[in-house]
Amino acid sequence: MNDDGSLTPVPTTFVGNKAVIKSLTNSTYVVVEGTHTFSDIQPHWAKGYIETLAAKQLVKGMTDTTYRPNDRMTRAQFAVLLVRALGLPSETYDGRFADVKGTEWFNKNGELAAAVKFGIIQGKTAYMFAPNEPITRAQAAVMIERALKLSIVGYDEATSDKTKKVTDFRDAKQLPTWAKQAIEAVYQAGIMQGRDSGNFDPTSHVTRAEMAKVLMDILELTKLI
């Protein structure tokens, strides 16, 4: 619970009637129970993921009643969701990007600044962030791998399936060099898979529904849910 009474979700697991809060700061905490659904996920393959994350206040709808699961994720949205899911502490924005004022929704509680400080995401250039640009599957894989490598996350790479290789994908030769290692890492971790076609499809965009599943997989993998 913030000083102004607003709530910021932090990773929490439950053992019987005991809440185990995994936070990086000393703060005031409150356990909130609730459910939330959206009219446009009935039915949808990601319904369960979306409702679980919405109940934990990690994802929000585009309106109070609609989630818009098939909309494309933006760079800012993806960064904010990773920061929320991992419970990274907020940071003060230093004004480094010309296209980010620091007062936008995606940095309301210092989320974007935290994503940049912890190295999860970088600018498109040293001075431009492009917050509203849709994020590709290759870019998402890189961000996820960076998040998993954070020491505070505590992900055990030994649990990855090392038999999985990027050569499993039909379009392996088309994967960008800068993303190959990350794609293989998240594939081995079981967070991202190939498409039904057998391709990884690195340049296609991540939808809001796909991000919900990715977030759940990350939280379960790192025992934060």
Largest sheet: 2 strands, antiparallel
Shape: globular
Structural class of the secondary elements?
Answer: mainly alpha
Share of residues in helices: 25-40%
Low-confidence stretches: none
Q: Gyration radius, to the nearest Å? A: 17 Å
% residues in beta strands:
under 5%
Which strands sit side by side, in order, in the main sheet? 1-2
Q: Spell the H/E element sequence.
A: EEHHHHHH
Indicate the mean pLDDT. Answer: 92
Tally the beta strands: 2
User: Total number of helical segments?
Assistant: 6
Keywords:
4% strand, 29% helix, 225 residues, mainly alpha, two-stranded antiparallel sheet, 2 strands
Q: How does this structure look, described?
A:
The chain is mainly α. The chain has a domain at 69-221. The chain has six helices and two strands, in the order E-E-H-H-H-H-H-H. The protein has helices at 47-55, 75-86, 111-117, 137-149, 180-189, 208-221, and strands at 12-15, 18-21. A two-stranded antiparallel ribbon has the order 1-2. A hairpin with a 2-residue loop joins strand 1 and strand 2. The chain is globular and about 50 Å long. The mean pLDDT is 92. It holds the Pfam family SLH. Its EC number is 3.2.1.4.
